[in-house]
Amino acid sequence: MSTRQRPGVIGLGMIGGGVAVSLARSGRPPVVYDVRPDAAHALPGVPEMAGSVAEVAANADVVLVAVVDADQARTVLCGQDGILGAARPGSVVVLLSTVAVPVVRELAGKCTEAGVSLLDCGVTPGDRAAENGMVAILGGEQAAVDTALPVLRDFTKQVVHCGPLGAGMATKIARNVITYGTWRAVHEASKLAERAGVDPEKLITVVESADPEGATLFQWQRYRLAADERLRVLASTVEALQDKDLAAALELAGHFGISSPLVEVTREHGSETLAFPEKEERR
Fold first, then answer.
1. Tens digit of each residue's pLDDT, the chain (283 residues)
2. What is the model's pTM?
């Protein structure tokens, strides 16, 4: 397999534009296209744009699609002058856009009909795209991964193959749940602190000083994945502490008339959160 495969990038927004810059910096300048005629002008090292999506597909071995949503992805793949009408047999389409998993399967079927492979590839964090700073979260067949891997490595800091088709997108979606859920937790906690007369910046200082590496976020999940029976005995103790502390949070919220739905749900499902999986569940 040649490591000098030529990439194409369709969509030059924050992520696609950043990917193109990182590829150019790595010595693998891509063929690029965007509906905005001047989209490549401010991207250092990136060549002038091709005339169409089809021109990118005809001149690339690995085509990276970084459009906004499912409808745009369908148009880029299957529309007039789209990828599938011009792609070389055996080429790989890498879908960087975050879409629902059924859409991934739908688009993969269209690609298979055209003799092209599709990888679903969530990427994060998007604001590091131009710095070779993203993680590529892949789903798809190993043969397609092997074909695309040299290109993927040239714009990322790490590539994680999560499993078969759809696994990359499911992992990216799960990662987003953690991000947005954490933002909500911080929002509710900050409201409590602020109404109690605490500067929210002090809360940030406390949390970052106590856990600068962010290890607490996955601490309990790591305990569960370790399947260490000695850790199971901690669950009842932690559950009692969790219930006590969240009850205090809800009491404080009630005192100030603050809505804290995440706190309520977390307390309601505390046992489920802390439960260790049974042996058959871990297989």
1. 345 789 999 999 999 999 999 999 999 999 999 999 999 999 999 999 999 999 999 999 999 999 999 999 999 999 999 999 999 999 999 999 999 999 999 999 999 999 999 999 999 999 999 999 999 999 999 999 999 999 999 999 999 999 999 999 999 999 999 999 999 999 999 999 999 999 999 999 999 999 999 999 999 999 888 877 778 888 889 999 999 999 999 999 999 999 999 999 999 999 999 988 876 455 4
2. 0.88
- Which of these, 115, 195, 201, 125, lies nearest to 158 by C-alpha position? 125
Q: What is the dihedral of CA 48, 51, 54, 57, to 10 degrees?
A: -10
DSSP for 145-173, written as a single string: HHHHHHHHHTTEEEEEEEESTTHHHHHHH
Q: Distance between CA atoms of 42 and 34, rounded to whole angstroms?
A: 13
Which domains are present in the chain?
7-164 (3.40.50.720), 172-282 (1.10.1040.10)
The beta-strand segments (E) located in 40-89 are: 62-65
Judge whether 266 and 246 are in contact, CB under 8 Å. Answer: yes
Q: Give residues with Cβ within 8 angstroms of 245, minimum separation 6.
A: none
Residue 279 among the catalytic residues? no
C-beta of residue 26 within 8 angstroms of C-beta of residue 46: no
Give the position of tokens 């309990």: 220
∠ Cα 205 213 162 (to 5°):
135
The answer to whether the CB of 40 falls within 8 A of the CB of 34 is yes
Radius of gyration of the chain (CA): 23
Of the candidates 110, 157, 172, 279, the residue annotated as catalytic is 172
